[in-house]
Structures are given as C-alpha cells and as structure tokens.
Amino acid sequence: MKTRIVTSLLLGTALSLATASLAIAQDKTVKIGALSDQSGLYADLAGPGSTLAAQMAAEDSGLTAKGWKIDIISGDHQNKPDIGTAITRQWFDVDKVDVVVDVPNSGVALAVNNIIKEKNGVYINSGAATSDLTNAQCSPNTVHWTYDTYMLAHATGQALVKAGGDTWFFLTADYAFGAALERDTTAVVLANGGKVVGGVKHPLNTADFLVPAAGAVVESQDHRAGQCRRRHHQYHQAGGRIRHRQGWAEARGAPAVHHRRQGHRP
Description:
- This protein is of the alpha/beta class.
- The protein contains 7 helices and 10 strands.
- Mean pLDDT is 78; it is low at 1-9 and 221-265.
C-alpha cells in the first residue's frame, strides 16, 4: 500500500511537469508510460499496482475536469534492459509518450535513463535504487524519487556499524543495484572503522532469490547482553530479518552475540 501511495504522489508530480511543459502549446493531452516488472519478482512491489496508482493519480489530479486528457499506458520490461529500452523508444517515437515513470530494476532504469535523455523526454524514477542515476549518470531529464543506495548505505549501513556490526560480508543481487549497494555501503563501513571481508553475487530471479539476496551479512561481538537484546528488538520492529546465535565463544571468556541481517531492494 505504501508503494502505491508513493506512486500516486509521484504521478501527481509527473502530471504537473507534463502539463507545465505542454501548456504553452495549449495541447491538453498527456500520455504517461508506467514501465515496470508486470510479471516477475518485482511485480508485487510495483507492476500492476503501480499502473493502477498512476490511473488513480490521473483521476485525483482534477485535470480531466479542466479539459485535459490523461492517458496511462503500461509496459513490462521483464527485468531486461534491452526490452526496457525497446519499449521506451517505441513509446517516444510512435506512441508519443510524454513521461515515463516507475521502472524498478536499476539495470533497466540506467538504460532507460539514456534513451529518455536522447529523446529529451521526462523520466521520474520511483522503483530503481542505484545512486548512479543522480551521480555518475545524472541527467537533466530524470528525477530520482524516494530512496537510493546512498541513502541505504548512510542510514542503515552507518547505524549498524556504530551499533557494533563492524564486520561485513555482502551477498548482493548480480545486477546494477547490487553493485551500487555494495559500493556505497562499503565506503560507509570503511569510513566508520568497519571492515568488509568479502562478498558474492547472486543471480537475479532464481528460485532461492526469495531469500533476501541483495543485502549484507553483518556480524558483531557484543559483551553487553542487555544492549544486544534491545538492538535485537529494535531491528525486529524495523522489519529486519535477524538470526540470533549465541554460545560458540563462551570458551573465550565472555559471551558473544552474532547478528545476521539481510535486506532486499530493487
């Protein structure tokens, strides 16, 4: 539900941008393309729900009562950059789309970002998280809405290191999002005195990808059991998946606690 509310707000912004750009020509027609994963692993996160949110945003905008025609079309990029770019070209060259929105999957988003810059269109991203959209591949045609890997690294990553999770091993999705998340989080971990001991890539959309595959395993030794229990409760309340394991290091003198937390983003 939260994703759909955000998408509705996003589409309101998209409508404002599109109508502002078309007002001079007195063309009261706006076409918005909701490009998403309609059938794969991100379909529940975005997909048909995002398309519906776009339609609801168009209805709630009040522009139709003022004579505007707002068309929402959708496309399924299937988590493949070549399919995403082909759809985007078709939309701008043939279907006369004004704005592209959503686009979960950072690999697809980066590819679409280049096409929209070439076509001088408007792209409002709410699905992909790679910080490259606003850094290395920043475009005047693109607005990066909601979250990105920089935010994830500097919020969650930094907080975990400061809480004692100073040793990191990355299990990341094997595409642009996983690479950006590992890069941004590694920088934060090292800057705050932690260390990264390794990492592996996980293929996208395989059967065992249902286990969160785009996160990190974090371990810490904490001799203060009360603080550990409080952090465990806080992480649980925040929606984190934590395995609590205790006892292997009693022979070393003080009890040790290990936290394992994994997160999943597109």
